[in-house]
Amino acid sequence: MVIKRIYLLSLLAASVSLAACSNPSAASEGHGSKQSKPNIVIIYSDDVGYGDIGVYGAKGLKTPAIDQLAAEGAQFTDAHCTAATCTPSRYSLLTGSYAFRNKAAVLPGDAPLIIDPQLPTLPKMLQQNGYRTAVIGKWHLGLGRGNINWNERVGPGPKEIGFDYSFILPSTGDRVPTVYMENQQIVGLDPNDPVEVSYAENISDRPTGMERPDLLKMGADPQHSGTITNGVSRIGYMKGGESALWEDETLADMLSTKAKEFIGAADDKPFFLYYALHDIHVPRVPNSRFVGKSGMGPRGDAILQMDWAVSELMDALAQQGLLENTLVIFTSDNGPVLDDGYADRAVELLGEHKPSGDFGGGKYSVLEAGTRVPTIVYWKGRIKPGTKSNAMLSQVDLYASFASLVGHSLAGNEAPDSFNMLESWRAASTESRPYLVEEAYAFAVRKNGWKYITAGGATPDWLAVKGVRAGWGTSPRLYHLKEDMAEQQNVIGEHTSEAQELASLWEEVRTAPTRPDYQKQQ
Ligand code: NG6
Ligand code: CA
What we know:
By secondary structure, the protein is of the alpha/beta class. Helices cover about 20% and strands about 15% of the residues. Strand 9 and strand 10 (about 230-235) form a beta hairpin. The relative contact order is 0.17. Mean pLDDT is about 95; it is low at about 1-35.
């Protein structure tokens, strides 16, 4: 680890270069002297909560690499993914569009691609502006067009939506097929042992978790008790592909190696790396290097592994001489969850640690901790080290903000809900979005310290079992977040005009694209 070195160097550099960098798109240093645009890396962790990181108040475990990013960059206290689950947040990040416009919800592992290859995407926009692009890690946006033949190249997928290179888990760690795909082909597949996948019926000759709990590394709920691979039962059924099955214990190492290879192949083009970590999603099966090290069981150990992955990536950037011209964002795709289907003792071993910080809810919830996620932006010499920002921001805006960064004008059909908040992302301003939309199984709109939550029906049983406060009810709710950050007091009865204003705003958002200059271009 070269943590101290990075810190000292950047402190020295900061005083020199901050003054000279009011226009970020004019950045001119970098690995190739010809390169004029910064590399962009999004480290997208999975299910990491607001309170899971040291600088956000984690108790009982340390995240030195991520804390160091904050010490040398900017830490955001009110930045949000767009949704409280994975697929919709990723959809918004890559399209600059709210996921509800496309009914994007958590997908099964054999679902078709939900991003229309005809439409503009963040990676395509960056490609058009000279970037080499890659996704490494969890995909979970669907592949192909239905009835996938897993034994040939599966498309459309990452390539068709703008990634030059892909090395992915097709869906999630807890869903079949449990194989890596490189450039949309299963890695290490033996053609004589073809892969077949079903989410409807058990087509596998492997045992399921239901039939053979004695074979499992950890117990699982009925939904996660399908086909067993590597001693872990998954959602869905999978046949064949024995030589291609991943090992959960080396997943973080594999993704780290691939990310470093991509960075190491840097040429004169700037690059965009969407590094979508599997940690700390279930199943939490960290490498033996981390097992038992957090005292919090597999969930805490997975946090340590995630922090290690960040340190590896930052070291690789440093070794390549890329730190000065690389903008790195560390964040998460949704809030925290303890019990997400496997018996990994996350609840029992939690101790004083508060994954949601002082906010209410978590993954799946429309309360703040569903989407308010740790967010750190690092850009050596361009962001004042140790800046803290309470600007209210949304990941849906990264598209328009990066467009601004690279000098790209958005076309009429591009990023319909994305606002250019570049100055806030680089902590040169503390300007907030005018309002914020949060998506779970209900919707919330925040403005001027108030939060309105639409009616969402009764809390589903599966959510009640997890002990997460869903946050919605059979009628709308209103919270005065400024005074009630944990969203305990529904004040809709006393504040009807505030509720009405936000209800109308939500109606406007729901029915039309929101990018300020979008409509006039139509
Ligand atoms: C849920 C799974 C959960 C997790 C989630 C997706 C059940 C009961 N639960 O449906 O374990 O996989 O989907 O998580 O099946 S996410 O972070 O990718 O959104
Ligand atoms: Ca997630």
